[in-house]
Amino acid sequence: MSASEELESLAVKYAKEAIQLEGKGSRRIAATKYQRAIEVLLKLCSLYPAAPQNKLYMEHAEAYRKRVQELQSDSEPNSRPVESADGKDSKNIKFDQWVLTEKPDISWDDIADLEKPKRAIEESIVFPVRRPDLFPLGWPRGILFFGPPGCGKTLLAAAVASEIKGVFFCADAASLMSKWLGESERNVSQLFAKARENAEKGQPAIVFIDEIDSLMGVRGEEVGGEVRVRNQFLKEMDGILDKKRNYHVYLIGATNKPWVLDEPFIRRFQKRIYVPLPDIKARMDMFQIYAHDLKLDNNVDFAELARVTEGYSGGDIRDLFQSTQLKVVRNFFTHGNVTDLASVPDPITMEDFQSIVTGRRPSVSQTILKRYYDWDESFKAS
Questions:
Q1: Where in the chain is CATH 3.40.50.300?
Q2: Is the pLDDT of residue 1 over 60?
Q3: In the chain, where does the domain assigned CATH 1.10.8.60 lie?
Q4: Using H for helix, E for strand and C for coil, what is the string for the chain?
Q5: Which pTM value belongs to this model?
Q6: More confident position, 59 or 348
Q7: Residue 133 scores a pLDDT above 70
Q8: Of 100, 153, 343, 380, whose CB neighbour count within 10 A is largest?
Q9: What CATH number does the domain located at 3-72 have?
Q10: Which one is predicted more confidently, 60 or 134?
């Protein structure tokens, strides 16, 4: 165990002792234990000033300091802001923050192209759910979507939620990481426990982790809390990949930076699918989707527009249509009769699109695209 991990474990020990003492009514001794936890956390920050967890440590220290003041006051303390003596969070985690209670209004038809990712989802989730007897060797339960931002990775996950009659858990680092020591890995454990519980009742459970690199990435300097969260993820992933268990729990991860993922995690994603920039056919399909509710002039040439938007991501194309519509609306407010409710903006012309394209560049550089290509060549598993 590293020095930072030992210090963090010591802080956890003092905090837990304080909680137990509070439960027994020993407020003064509990305050002393909290104070020791504060001292250890401050020492951690001074010894490792560049550690990414320092902000959380300082938040811990401040919370414990306020707790000491409450315990030392004459008034009764407020409800504890830390875990209870039995190790459970006194504020029970509400899984509503992760469970999509309403299915997103997104279907496969709303996602242009991306046939390979769609096929991976069918092979890994849809077919095994319908006929598990056809998969004596098991089926993939870990899918990683990687590629440039704005190319549909999150949309794919949302479409799964619409297509599959099951429970969809959507989480990210912000919802899983906690400022309370030991709580982050417990969040991970409880998230997967809840998914298994639903699967054992016969409902497929899909856990979608957006920006998964922020939880499973390799960092130059790590502290104990981050290591424990990553180890908990490895443990949970091994659990859902166990071929002896036939329940339907799946993990879908999305990342724009696959090269920062630690290799033990990479191996546990049996499907690693590159979600690329849209090709010319996909861009044409996107034009149809985004133009559905817009009024276009007859001179708009989607084929030419697809040619001049080579290298655009799906997000870039959405922004192009939005900016062009704003241009037309702005012109209407400047020169039109806004007070006349029967008056509407002119149709969007090809010249409107071209004027916006002239002032825009693709958001994804060729250098970044090469990194995706190289990583795909090294780790592809479609």
A1: 95-277
A2: no
A3: 280-363
A4: CCHHHHHHHHHHHHHHHHHHHHHCCCHHHHHHHHHHHHHHHHHHHHHCCCCCCHHHHHHHHHHHHHHHHHHHCCCCCCCCCCECCCCCECCCCCHHHCECCCCCCCCHHHCCCCHHHHHHHHHHHHHHHHCHHHCCCCCCCEEEEECCCCCCHHHHHHHHHHHCCCEEEEECHHHHCCCCCCHHHHHHHHHHHHHHHHHHCCCCEEEEEECCHHHHECCCCCCHHHHHHHHHHHHHHHHHCCCCCCCCEEEEEEECCHHHECHHHHHHCCEEEECCCCCHHHHHHHHHHHCCCCCECCCCCHHHHHHHCCCCCHHHHHHHHHHHHHHHHHHHHHHCCCCCCCCCCCCECHHHHHHHHHCCCCCCCHHHHHHHHHHHHHHCEC
A5: 0.69
A6: 348
A7: yes
A8: 153
A9: 1.20.58.80
A10: 134
| Percent of the chain surpassing pLDDT 70 | 86
- Domain 95-277: give its CATH code: 3.40.50.300
Q: Is the pLDDT of residue 368 over 90?
A: yes
